[in-house]
């Protein structure tokens, strides 16, 4: 049951911290320790050597820029230790989750239903207000609109629920139609371009994946056309979405422009080897007058995972992690991998449990695929690193 509670905490308390460590981190630590003591082995293969190279790139900015005025060594060491821990948890935890993957998938489904139910509860408190839930009701208002946040601190973070949703779909977990409808309603009521983009891209990938061998070309065209019509209808009827899209294409100040354009603008101005883990804000504040950034946030916060990796590990680090993901997962898990990679443009929580939990879901899905066909069984003939 510790794994059930751990996964629940990871998703429920992704924003809640005790000092510098979140409840999600505590859950991951517990799950990693249990996995370590349970198996007394670490599964390893040649592809994972890329992760070793990625860890090496973490320390290059420290060697090159450790004496620079902006560089905070304490922040760098803490962030680096966290990042290395997350990588090891990614290596340890999926195996024990996969051990009973049917129960694990059921837990993921229950978490998803909880986030949906809480989102619908927000709807109820908005349209049927009471004094008891006044604060909760007000926390759901932004841009003058009621927007679902569910368990998250802001509507755009509902993308985590969207990723859980597509993990279940690609894992062929049976979801009743009513839950698909409720998920759609909650997604729409976030009024978030981020959530809309990931949701409809996932639907597009799901349709291509599901209909590839089950429907004629004409049927596939009709289904895809219907999806596009629904997306256009939503765009026409959601003014805030129109504003964000127009701002993005016209490069006007907005959250979408900052995430997609501004974050890369900052990353392109950073040193080739990055500025060092935990120092992206320090570097920005120390150099903002000479960087000449036009579209970037004045806070120094980077809301784009690809840009964050460039700032942490440099371009080589980004190349290594993308190479690892596509080498390991593209052949048999391309559908979910595409959805995850597209989501990277919309959030910047790289050195957090949220990013690596997403990779753990991808790894568990990869292991499930190995059971469906014999072509991947050889992948489990791995090197066992026994630390006992």
Describe, in plain words, how this protein is organized in 3D.
The protein is mainly alpha-helical and 388 residues long. The protein has one domain (2-385). The protein has 16 helices and six strands. Helix 9 packs antiparallel against helix 10 (217-237). The longest helix has 27 residues, at 101-127. It starts with a helix and ends with a strand. The model is unreliable at 375-388 (pLDDT under 50).
Keywords:
two-stranded antiparallel ribbon; 388 residues; two-stranded antiparallel sheet; mainly alpha; disordered C terminus
What's the SSE blueprint?
Elements: H1 2-12, E1 17-18, E2 21-22, H2 23-39, E3 42-44, H3 49-65, H4 73-98, H5 101-127, H6 134-138, E4 141-142, E5 145-146, H7 159-170, H8 177-188, H9 193-211, H10 217-237, H11 239-249, H12 255-269, H13 280-291, H14 305-329, H15 334-343, H16 353-372, E6 383-385
Antiparallel strand pairs: 1-2, 3-6, 4-5
Helix pairs in contact: 1-2, 1-5, 2-4, 3-4, 3-14, 4-16, 5-7, 5-8, 7-9, 7-15, 7-16, 9-10, 9-15, 11-12, 12-14
DSSP strand (E) fraction? Answer: under 5%
Distance between the termini: 26 Å
Low-confidence stretches: 375-388
Q: Assign an overall shape.
A: globular
Total E-strand runs = 6
| Portion of residues within helices | 55-70%
Helix-strand pattern, N to C?
HEEHEHHHHEEHHHHHHHHHHE
Structural class per helix/strand content?
mainly alpha
Mind describing the biggest β-sheet? 2 strands, antiparallel
Strands ordered across the widest β-sheet: 1-2
Evaluate the radius of gyration: 21 Å
Oligomer: single chain
Tally the helices. Answer: 16
Instruction: Give the averaged pLDDT, no decimals.
Output: 79
Whole-number tally of structural domains: 1
